[in-house]
Amino acid sequence: MLLAIDVGNTQTQAGVYHGDDLLQEWRISTERGATADELAAHHDQILRLRGGSLGELDEMVVASVVPQLSTEYQSLAVKYLQREALLIGPGVRTGISLAIDNPRELGADRLVNAVAAFRRCGGPCIVVDFGTATTFDAISETGEYLGGAIAPGIETSLDALTARAARLVKIDLVAPARAIGKSTVESMRSGVVFGTVAMVDGVVERMKDELGPGTTVLATGGLATLVCPLSEQIDENHPLLTLEGLRLVHELNSQRVETTGEVR
């Protein structure tokens, strides 16, 4: 069985696959100072609550935007699974080409999102990932990763607003009842949520102009469920898109080892 780990700046998403089937999925808070043993304990505890254990897993694939945790997850794999994890990065086969200035700058999560999106719907397509940042990734008709855009995430924007405005407090992020708020809380919800929707639809529309007709737009990330029903440009929401991309990249690299004898 395969453990897929997506380490984000705020949350870490994990899933266990048996072949193509996702058996378990969970999220934990990302703790930048966590050691390999602490990470193993967190994941093992969740698996045991669901009738499994870390010891039952065979392999691991990791996409991480937190460099120090990449090292710790690699240590976890060696110590508890007795083999190295596949870390998404330079040299890893993905099946798509990168038509950008510096491929090393591309976040591992954005790369596997592109892999999963192209496998799921072909191209051209756009992935909008709602995380600490809201990212946009464009894939061509032939499967080239063309680049994208990065904007502050919804919660990041809200945190900045409440930190700098003394009379504004943190609010729950729910869909606003109307655009014209009748209170400070309603006004903040309207501005943050509808503002994000307008930004997303605007950026996507401009990208579609460059990609051409027939572009499919997929969303993922924790807050996608808030934005998608309000968006005019997003076609589908796939909360597990990143895990799916991790599985596909792992599968591709496993086939490479089997056919060539290469060992990472």
Mean pLDDT: 93
What Rg do the Cα atoms give? 19 Å
Just name the CATH architecture of the largest domain.
2-Layer Sandwich
Span of the ends, CA to CA:
19 Å
User: What is the percent of helical residues?
Assistant: 40-55%
Task: Give the helices and strands as they follow along the chain.
Answer: EEEHEHEEHEEEHHEHEH
Number of strands: 11
Number of structurally distinct domains: 2
Oligomer: single chain
Overview in brief:
The strands form two sheets. Strands 6-9-8-7-10-11 form a six-stranded mixed β-sheet, with helices on both faces. Strands 3-2-1-4-5 form a five-stranded mixed β-sheet, with helices on both faces. The chain has helices at residues 36-49, 67-81, 108-121, 154-164, 184-211, 224-227, 241-260, and strands at 2-7, 11-18, 21-29, 59-64, 86-87, 97-98, 125-130, 133-139, 144-152, 216-220, 236-237. It has 264 residues and is α/β, with parallel strands linked by helices.
Give a topology summary.
Blueprint (H helix, E strand, L loop, with lengths): L1 E6 L3 E8 L2 E9 L6 H14 L9 E6 L2 H15 L4 E2 L9 E2 L9 H14 L3 E6 L2 E7 L4 E9 L1 H11 L19 H28 L4 E5 L3 H4 L8 E2 L3 H20 L4
Parallel strand pairs: 1-4, 4-5, 6-9, 7-10, 10-11
Antiparallel strand pairs: 1-2, 2-3, 7-8, 8-9
Helix pairs in contact: 1-2, 3-7
What can you tell me about this protein's structure?
The protein has 264 residues and is of the alpha/beta class. It folds into two domains: 2-87, ATPase, nucleotide binding domain (Nucleotidyltransferase, domain 5); 97-241, Nucleotidyltransferase, domain 5 (2-Layer Sandwich). Helix content is 40%, strand content 23%. The protein has helices at residues 36-49, 67-81, 108-121, 154-164, 184-211, 224-227, 241-260, and strands at 2-7, 11-18, 21-29, 59-64, 86-87, 97-98, 125-130, 133-139, 144-152, 216-220, 236-237. β2 (11-18) and β3 (21-29) form a beta hairpin. Residues 257-264 have low confidence and may be disordered.
